[in-house]
């Protein structure tokens, strides 16, 4: 059992003071030194692989293999990618001049933002804190990391790994819940990276506004899946089962609900049930690959939503079993009778898949557009026109066509929400840029200072020049 101990107010104040004092030195860390730190982090993670798997199993019942690819590999690949590209990302980028700036040098220089705070959720408690930490360290910042209070076993390993690689004046872990986070948010950071619910995201943004501190918000939402009649139904159903029930549905970009062409109704439900049995057997609680719900509170929330629905006539297609002592909820598929209850209003963040059958695409689009802009949108169709229609008439942080969830693994795509599902961009180059200030630098031409055209006193030739600018530039 991990013993729970939250950081004290004095510890938080000490980390902050030490990181503030270390700022001037931290900003001067060369790209080489930053890369060496990230490389050391990579080595320590690989050396602790078994401990990480064990901790994730205790917190979320994750299969070791799932921890390997969805947590450890996700961090390792990000660390390797950053090390490979950092030199290029951190180098000044020249931009083109127009005629007015002939002979001048214009470029963008990434500079560290300074003191950063990273706040993480519990669903990918190893991967999420570390990929953002890697971006912040790569950008040359100090980091205070506040993991979720609900993933205590993983937090312990995380804190040990970080302490082995970094001095706390550079990177420190603060453990705690609302009180400790509130204390952190009262401090003046230069950037806050928050991953969690939209409700807490608003609190973070309000606190950040007091210091005009930059924020990145990686939030959640109800991510829809569109299923067209022109699709390979067998593959699509397997795809949905994996994406939805990975980590027992506790994935921010998991499909939240499915919108299916009504002509597919019987075939879709039959294939979905078959895919579920192929994935987890006839009794999923016996499957070693099926994860558990993080805690009793989340399980009760999900159970209540399901009970409310079933009491209102929602049709249970499969699943529904809940075992409190095991924090188990079976993969559950339902057909709701109405869309105005919690099932179709709140982000589910658990193993319940509502399926809605639509008569025409406009109806499905309306259901999506009546809700907040989601983190992701999935489209299963071999019809180009259908795909284009969905993209054109919806908005989402990311979109994946004929697959789901894996868009997050692409090294050159940003990871981000839009409005209620997030602000700012993460991962790869986008993460580095988000944790950096893009400083605009202009060095005047050695022959002529451009502003001399406007120097006082204004003359007739100034007027002519301005008229020329208005006409031609
Ligand atoms: P949460 O918002 O409850 O908590 C996130 C963090 O905020 C935790 O560290 C928690 O201690 C802290 N916190 C909670 N209440 C607070 C308060 N009142 N004041 C200050 N800090 C507070 O989210 P969660 O339950 O940990 O995670 C689930 C949510 O996270 C879902 O909405 C999910 O979609 C989202 N999520 C998003 C991403 C993404 O990358 N976009 C990834 C994972 C999870």
TrEMBL record:
Active site residues per record: 218, 252
InterPro entries associated with the record: Ald_DH/histidinol_DH, Ald_DH_C, Ald_DH_CS_CYS, Ald_DH_CS_GLU, Ald_DH_N, Aldehyde_DH_dom, Aldehyde_DH_NAD(P)
Gene Ontology CC annotation, any one: cytoplasm
Molecular function GO terms recorded: aldehyde dehydrogenase (NAD+) activity
Keyword set, alphabetical order: NAD, Oxidoreductase
Protein's UniProt keywords contain Oxidoreductase: yes
Pfam families: Aldedh
Sequence ranges assigned to domain Aldehyde dehydrogenase in this UniProt record: 5-440
Gene3D superfamilies given in the database record: Aldehyde Dehydrogenase, Chain A, domain 1, Aldehyde Dehydrogenase, Chain A, domain 2
Membrane-traversing stretches: none
SUPFAM superfamilies in the cross-refs: ALDH-like
GO biological process: aldehyde metabolic process
Similarity comment: family membership: Belongs to the aldehyde dehydrogenase family.
Protein name, entry field: Aldehyde dehydrogenase
Lineage: Bacteria, Pseudomonadati, Bacteroidota, Sphingobacteriia, Sphingobacteriales
